[in-house]
Write a structure and sequence with these properties.
Number of domains: 2
Shape: globular
Structural class: alpha+beta
Number of helices: 6
Order of helices and strands: EHEEEHHHHH
Helix content: 25-40%
Largest sheet: 4 strands, mixed
Strand order of the largest sheet: 1-2-3-4
């Protein structure tokens, strides 16, 4: 089984930032996903990254119950987005679909993180200036209503994530981040607009998930 970093939230990619690459190429490097994730784990730790989010264009129904993609999951395109909402140098965001496999695009981002970190060895940066071009900008997603508290977000996710497979307790969602991810993926499979889901319910789900991610799953 692929060993993803424990705190990495892997989600279906639903909104690609800009036009997709028309003519992709084969990556000039070769490594398995396990090796890429090992390097990514190290680079995230070096950056002091908290609550990293990896978005891959894999449909929600091809994710396991633990929130990880199935071994035989098929992506709709190879683009990936890595969002780092909290790091030692601020929020960062990386996106690429240059290569023809999503695993290779993730490796490209990972090797890029490694290269940026190594710039510090030469003493030409003092405050992480090399990351400036990757500072995360506000997304075009539906804004979160300021009235939604953490407790309300947990109640929304408990409501939307519970179905015939089982229910989620609000208190448990506040205490255990892994349950937040599980409830999100269960609800996303039903509510995604591309699958005929209700747009309003989808927006509430996304808002609740983001609030709970910022909360860190702790009361």
């Amino acid at each position: 089984m692929i060993d993803y970093p424990a705190d990495l939230d892997v989600r279906p990619l639903t909104n690609w930032p800009g036009p997709l690459t028309a003519a992709r190429t084969r990556a000039p490097f070769s490594a398995g996903l396990t090796a890429t994730l090992d390097t990514l784990r190290r680079e995230l730790a070096a950056l002091g990254a908290r609550h990293p989010v990896l978005e891959v264009a894999i449909p929600a129904d091809q994710f396991r119950i633990d929130g990880r993609p199935r071994a035989n999951a098929r992506e709709t395109h190879p683009g990936v987005v890595l969002s780092l909402p909290t790091t030692n140098v601020g929020a960062l965001r990386y996106a690429t679909d240059t290569f023809d496999r999503w695993q290779d695009n993730l490796r490209a981002i990972t090797l890029g993180l490694e290269a940026l970190r190594k710039v510090d060895r030469y003493g030409i940066t003092k405050r992480g200036e090399q990351y400036a071009g990757f500072k995360a900008l506000p997304s075009g997603a539906t804004p979160m209503p300021s009235a939604m508290t953490v407790d309300e977000a947990a109640r929304v996710l408990a409501e939307l994530g519970s179905d015939e497979q089982g229910t989620f307790a609000t208190r448990a969602l506040l205490d255990f981040p892994t349950l937040v991810t599980r409830a999100y993926h269960r609800a996303a499979g039903r509510l995604h607009p591309d699958r005929g889901g209700d747009r309003t319910a989808w927006d509430r789900l996304e808002q609740a998930k983001r609030i709970l991610d910022q909360h860190g799953g702790r009361s």
